[in-house]
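Query structure, 269 tokens:
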């Protein structure tokens, strides 16, 4: 079975609840989602309740994601949010390991692994972000960094929960206003490495029933994606979608980037 096409945005520390809810409402009203596609938006915590109200009863047409979660079910962790709290809001997905969380909040791989296991253990989808820094790339260890993040992050995920996992490859040097956009030639070998790393960990192809396999895990690309380059990344065989920041922060920009990415994938299939 072909892997689904995924496309979504992370609002980072932007937007009020009213703004996020309006974005979701407008987006849902303007898009027809093909059966092979999943769209998602990841607003800040304070917008989640307002957005899930607009999204209505699950299953949500457009997945609503959170930007982080704690691994413990409850307890003395001031400022943190648990998986159960997200599920109580009907959140569909949690982003873990975004480059900004790793860089500014020093989230190590082992901690991310605890978060991944807590989320999938409660049936919450995970988008695990991986990516090397410019410095790691300059020393020629970009691939090693990404594989380490992947292997520790997904350690001990049970095969029957693999269907809840998606990976976002986001080279740190390509993200945000100060980033240098990557080329498809930069992305292709790392995407292939992630694909083979997943297959090494979890097997190449689906073996039986609902046991997932490494080869089925969707891989998204992110970092300075916009409508002009979206299709060049999705044309790569191991890229199954896009994870976009700035270019998708307006409904028009979201739609234009999604359509360019979807077209790039469709023409390459
Ligand atoms: P960008 O952000 O598209 O604005 O570069 C991507 C990200 O941080 O995930």
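Result returned for the query:
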């Amino acid at each position: 079975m072909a892997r689904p096409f995924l496309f979504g945005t992370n609002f980072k520390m932007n937007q009020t609840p009213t703004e996020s809810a309006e974005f979701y409402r407008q987006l849902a009203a303007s898009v027809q989602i093909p059966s092979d596609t999943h769209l998602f938006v990841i607003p800040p915590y304070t917008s989640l309740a307002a957005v899930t109200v607009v999204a209505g009863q699950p299953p949500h047409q457009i997945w609503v994601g959170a930007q982080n979660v704690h691994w413990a079910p409850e307890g003395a962790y001031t400022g943190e949010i648990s998986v159960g709290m997200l599920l109580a809001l009907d959140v569909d997905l949690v982003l873990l390991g975004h480059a900004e969380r790793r860089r500014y909040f020093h989230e190590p791989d082992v901690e991310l692994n605890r978060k991944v296991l807590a989320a999938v253990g409660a049936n919450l989808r995970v988008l695990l972000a991986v990516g090397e820094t410019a410095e790691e790339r300059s020393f020629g260890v970009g691939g090693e960094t990404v594989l380490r993040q992947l292997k520790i992050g997904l350690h001990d995920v049970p095969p029957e929960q693999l269907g809840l996992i998606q990976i976002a490859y986001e080279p740190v040097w390509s993200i945000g206003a100060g980033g240098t956009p990557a080329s498809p030639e930069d992305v292709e070998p790392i995407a292939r490495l992630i694909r083979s790393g997943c297959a090494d960990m979890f097997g190449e192809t689906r073996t039986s029933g609902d046991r997932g396999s490494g080869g089925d895990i969707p891989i998204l690309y992110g970092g300075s994606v916009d409508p002009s380059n979206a299709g060049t990344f999705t044309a790569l065989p191991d890229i199954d979608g896009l994870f976009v920041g700035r270019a998708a922060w307006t409904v028009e920009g979201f739609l234009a980037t999604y359509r360019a990415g979807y077209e790039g994938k469709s023409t390459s299939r």
